[in-house]
Specification:
The complex is a heterodimer of chains A (about 375) and B (about 50). Chain A has about 375 residues and is an alpha/beta fold. Helices cover about 35% and strands about 20% of the residues of chain A. Chain A has 15 helices and 13 strands. Chain A has helices spanning about 10-20, 35-45, 70-80, 105-110, 120-130, 145-160, 175-180, 195-200, 210-215, 225-240, 260-270, 300, 320, 355-360, 365-370; strands at about 30-35, 55-65, 85-90, 115, 135-140, 165-170, 190-195, 215-220, 245, 270, 275, 280-285, 290. In chain A, strand 11 (about 275) and strand 12 form a beta hairpin. The two termini of chain A are about 40 Å apart. Chain B is mostly beta strands and about 50 residues long. Chain B contains no helices and 5 strands. Chain B has a 3-stranded antiparallel sheet, with no helix packed on it. A two-stranded antiparallel sheet of chain B has the order 4-5. The radius of gyration of chain B is 9 Å and the shape is globular. The chains are: A alpha/beta (about 375), B mainly beta (about 50).
Chain lengths: ~375, ~50
């Protein structure tokens, strides 16, 4: 497949891996954070960390959309799903995210009409087909999925569809990155930038990282060669004493982003003053809500919701995993009480979550290493 | 995904596994058959440059 096969060439991967060795300073330990959950998934799926020397450590960031949803927001969704006449729609991963009592999937088992959709446009179609029912879409994701929600709401408004609304949990990537860079817990040398977010927002929003914190960023694609080349580019910047935003993913990411998508998002959304992130707490201006022009589609206005903050289970260390402070296998319940089939924490639910990715692709290798 | 054919605000596309999808194309420029697009949640958000 074009744009796929050529970026999975094992020979080239080994060649880039060898080049990485030549860029290392003796005795230095490098910590590189991949921000996006898609990168985390690729790193474990293709064993990219096995191609890196021991002193180049990949740290997983807060870029999995499902992982950052706090339990209280899940409870809000479940409460709406239980309203009479509601058809509640969400992405498949979201069904298994634990709330304080149970998941949306368990709410469905109790009788709530909860349906998995691939796109918010599917939810809108369900609303068209069921004019006597209220259809609610539980929107999650970063700037990659926010355009699809915005476009859907724009179409709903243009068509005059009244029985459709949205619980907006869209988040933005820059505020949590700034919070991480301000954290004394973590010393990072560089960032693998989120290629798909940057397809929408462009490269400029990441320029604060080199400008304010002196760390290089390389916006990266998601195939194994993309990620290896991005690590090489970061190490080259570090060796040269430079720090700037570079774009490895030029085949997809335009410097200015997707202006049409940004325009639609600006019409439909506005920034929330603050939003709770799972494990990270409240972060100012880090999430989106519907703008006043679209408030009629806001399910948080249309339905009574609990809006109660719920603390994470004590055993769960998703917060530390999301901040890159601990590795998935260092969590007390990883692979024992918490597995993809019976997840306690969100990081074990989505394939993009660091714990699920590690569990599915890497834990046996790590156990061998530990032995 | 690879664009198979376009029509209105949608394109019929095929993913890496060969599965066909109907994708909204409002947010990307004019597309023709054979183009490759980046799709999130049923909406094309970018076009892959050759």
């Amino acid at each position: 497949v074009k744009f796929v096969d050529e970026f999975r060439d094992a020979e080239l991967g080994r060649a880039v891996s060898t080049q990485i060795l030549t860029e290392l300073e003796p005795g230095r330990h490098y910590k590189v954070m991949e921000v996006c959950g898609g990168h985390t998934h690729s790193i474990y799926k293709y064993g990219i960390d096995d191609l890196l020397p021991e002193n180049v450590e990949l740290v997983h960031g807060p870029g999995c959309p499902v992982c950052v949803i706090p339990m209280g927001r899940v409870d809000d969704g479940i409460a709406v799903a239980h309203h009479d006449g509601v058809i509640f729609t969400c992405f498949g991963d979201m069904l298994r995210v634990p709330g304080s009592q149970y998941t949306l999937l368990q709410a469905k088992a109790q009788g709530a009409d909860v349906r998995m959709v691939y796109s918010p446009l599917d939810a809108l179609r369900i609303a068209r087909e069921n004019p006597e029912r209220e259809v609610v879409f539980f929107a999650i994701g970063f700037e990659t999925t926010a355009p699809s929600t915005a476009l859907t709401l724009k179409r709903a408004k243009a068509e005059g569809i009244r029985n459709f609304s949205c619980i907006c949990n869209h988040v933005t990537i820059v505020p949590p990155l700034r919070a991480l860079l301000e954290s004394p817990d973590l010393r990072l040398d560089g960032f693998i930038g989120p290629g798909h977010v940057c397809t929408v927002v462009g490269a400029r929003p990441l320029e604060f990282i080199p400008a304010d914190y002196g760390r290089p960023v390389v916006i990266s694609g998601f195939e194994p060669l993309d990620i290896l080349q991005s690590i090489l580019m970061i190490l080259r910047q570090l060796r040269a004493g430079e720090c700037r935003v570079e774009n490895q993913y030029t085949r997809v990411v335009p410097q200015e982003g997707n202006l049409r998508a940004l325009e639609v998002m600006a019409e439909v959304f506005e920034l929330r003053p603050h939003f709770e992130w799972r494990g990270l707490g409240f972060i100012s201006q880090s999430a989106l809500r519907l703008s006043s022009a679209y408030e009629d589609f806001d399910a948080e206005r249309r339905f009574e919701i609990p809006n109660v903050r719920v603390a994470d289970p004590k055993a769960c260390q998703c917060g530390e995993v999301l901040k890159g402070v601990i590795k998935p296998w260092e969590c007390k319940v990883f692979g024992t009480a918490c597995t993809p089939e019976h997840a306690i924490g969100t990081c074990m639910v989505s394939p993009e979550g660091a714990c699920a990715a590690y569990y599915n692709f890497g834990r046996y290798a790590h156990e061998r290493e530990a032995v | 995904m690879r664009v198979l054919k376009t029509g209105g605000d949608f394109a019929e596309c095929r993913d890496e596994a060969g599965v066909r999808h109907l994708v909204a194309t409002d947010l990307v420029g004019p597309l023709g058959a054979g183009a490759t697009v980046l799709v999130h949640a049923g909406v094309a958000i970018g076009q892959v440059a050759a």
